[in-house]
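Summary of Year 1 activities. Much of the first year was spent building the evaluation harness for sequence design. The harness presents a backbone, in tokenized form, and records the residue chosen at every position. We chose the following record to illustrate the format because it has been used consistently in internal testing since the harness was completed.
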């Protein structure tokens, strides 16, 4: 790719492309729907319970990390399916590793949520 220099127009176009990627993630990727549902639930619960700024930072990073990993995983899967529509053990391994990365982040995000929410829920009762 040829480097033609920095222009504001090109930077604004890159935001348009990135926004389209987010739209595709949210509208077409079924696993992202699950993550988005969980994010909405956690956000509502955090708002109701009254999380601190520090707790919100952890929650936002956890949600953002999971959604970003899901986007990367979906990209890898789409590219792998294009390159090798027939079964290929290396492609399967690559797709499994990418899906595993999402799972690791989702589990980590759930643990962050439990660390933040369990003490708050226990003090409500």
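For this record, the design step produced the sequence shown next.
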């Amino acid at each position: 790719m040829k480097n033609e220099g920095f222009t504001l127009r090109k930077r604004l176009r890159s935001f348009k492309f990135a926004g389209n990627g987010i739209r595709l993630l949210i509208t077409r990727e079924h696993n992202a729907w699950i993550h988005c549902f969980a994010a909405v639930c956690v956000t509502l619960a955090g708002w109701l319970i009254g999380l601190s700024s520090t707790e919100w930072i952890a929650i936002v990073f956890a949600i953002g990390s999971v959604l970003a990993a899901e986007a990367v995983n979906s990209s890898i899967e789409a590219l792998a399916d294009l390159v090798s529509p027939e079964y290929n053990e290396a492609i399967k391994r690559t797709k499994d590793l990418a899906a595993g990365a999402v799972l690791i982040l989702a589990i980590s995000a759930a643990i962050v949520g439990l660390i933040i929410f369990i003490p708050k829920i226990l003090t409500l009762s």
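The mean pLDDT is 95. Quantitative recovery figures across the full test set are reported in Table 2.
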